[in-house]
Design a protein that fits this description.
Strand order of the largest sheet: 3-4-6-5
Region (Disordered): 153-192
Radius of gyration: 24 Å
Protein name: W2 domain-containing protein
Organism: Sphagnurus paluster
Pfam family, one: eIF-5_eIF-2B
Biased composition (Acidic residues): 179-192
Shape: globular
CATH topology of the domain at 5-167: Defensin A-like
Structural class: alpha+beta
């Protein structure tokens, strides 16, 4: 059985493409006239597409001329007959093109909306990325099923499933969970105060030493390098606290994808001590030096201790970048997660309370749920060490 994740648009060959989904798996059961194809991870795939799993299953039935059945309570989605997994994956691509991707910008961040005009009903894709509303082909048999089983849109802030694909709400597998949104919202005011404080301190720094790349090669003594890193930290911290525009990294040509590709291409040609400055300047050229999502891309493309983390939101993005780095790009490094977390904790990049919460709450914000579980499972030795250290402190008191 195949495992892993792929780009929702399989024609996009970019590891920094934001929208991803699990690889569709199949299982043949029964024999003779009772043979059937079960899709064990249909609900996970559909969730990544922000569509109910009944829609994708019914679409397969329409295209293959086969009966379908759903047992949503037990999470079983069946297409009668024996069907090759690769064939169903090809049909899934067709479904994505017809009922998910925006016809204008080809972004999967859409939701289906039913418009009524007299006796007529039309289904449109409402794109949350570009704002366009584009219709679907109402001649397809699936549209009859959708009209009879319209997507349910849950109001924001009501329950944990807001934005869940089973409810037909747009957002994709990378949409933020409510908990993260609330935490970011609650921390907005403190971030503003912190920004003022950091900017005031940064203004006192020697501006000639802050971001002058030529000076980095003048004196390579440990003390000089330490002072320049401190200067760079002050400059970056004063600008990197800004928010991110939703959907701004939706395609292969986004500034985030460009930054990731640039780091990949340049890291072997840059002087290590000056590369942090070069990365910052590249992000500045792309207009994303104020965006915390830049941290996620940097960690995924190049794990480095020059990353400056100045707020809770940044810590979450840093941990999200680690999930993508070890979960998607270098899965052989999953066992090294405790060491990575320990290093970041010991240099005060990660707070104990936040990393403990991260380790005990699986999230689909950055990676597939199964990958998220695997990374957090690997972090257990570090989390156990944190707990034991706290217990020892309490005993000493």
């Amino acid at each position: 059985m195949a495992s892993g994740v792929v780009n929702i648009r399989r024609d996009v060959d970019d590891k920094f493409y934001r929208y991803r989904m699990p690889i569709l798996n199949t299982k043949i059961e029964g024999k003779g006239n009772g043979i059937k194809t079960v899709v064990p991870n249909m609900s996970d795939v559909a969730r990544a597409l922000s569509r109910p799993p009944t829609y994708t299953t019914k679409f397969f039935g329409c295209e293959l001329g086969a009966q379908t059945s759903f047992d949503e309570k037990n999470d079983r989605y069946i297409v009668n007959g024996a069907h090759n997994a690769e064939r169903l994956r090809e049909l899934l691509d067709v479904f994505i093109d017809k009922f998910v991707l925006c016809r204008s910008c080809k972004n999967p961040e859409t939701e289906l909306v039913i418009l009524k005009s007299g006796r007529n009903e039309d289904i449109i894709r409402d794109c949350k990325a570009c704002g366009e509303r584009t219709g679907v082909d109402m001649r397809h048999k699936l549209t009859t099923f959708i009209l009879k089983n319209p997507p349910v849109k849950v109001k924001k802030g009501k329950g944990k499933n807001t934005g869940d694909a089973a409810d037909g709400v747009g957002g994709g597998s990378n949409s933020p969970q409510n908990g993260d949104d609330e935490a970011d919202a609650n921390g907005a005011e403190s971030d503003d105060e912190l920004t003022k404080k950091i900017k005031a301190e940064a203004a006192e720094l020697n501006t000639d030493a802050a971001l002058d790349k030529e000076d980095w090669s003048a004196d390579t003594s440990p003390e000089a390098v330490k002072q320049r890193i401190k200067a760079l930290e002050g400059s970056m911290a004063s600008t990197v606290l800004g928010g991110d525009d939703d959907g701004s990294d939706e395609d292969a040509n986004s500034p985030y994808a460009q930054l990731g590709r640039w780091i990949d291409e340049e890291r072997d040609h840059q002087e290590p001590k000056g590369f942090a400055v070069a990365i910052y300047k590249k992000a500045e050229d792309l207009g994303i030096e104020k965006k915390h999502k830049s941290l996620l891309v940097i960690v995924q493309a190049l794990f480095t201790d020059d990353i400056m983390v100045t707020s809770e939101k940044h810590q979450k993005s840093l941990l999200g970048g680690i999930e993508r780095f070890v979960g998607l790009v270098h899965p052989d490094l999953v066992t090294a997660v405790p060491k990575i977390l320990m290093e970041l904790y010991q240099i005060d990049v990660l707070d104990e309370e936040l990393v403990t919460q991260w380790g005990t709450h699986v999230s689909k914000k950055y990676v597939d749920k199964e990958i998220s579980k695997r990374v957090r499972k690997a972090s257990e030795p570090f989390l156990k060490w944190l707990q034991e250290a706290d217990d020892d402190d309490e005993e000493d008191d």
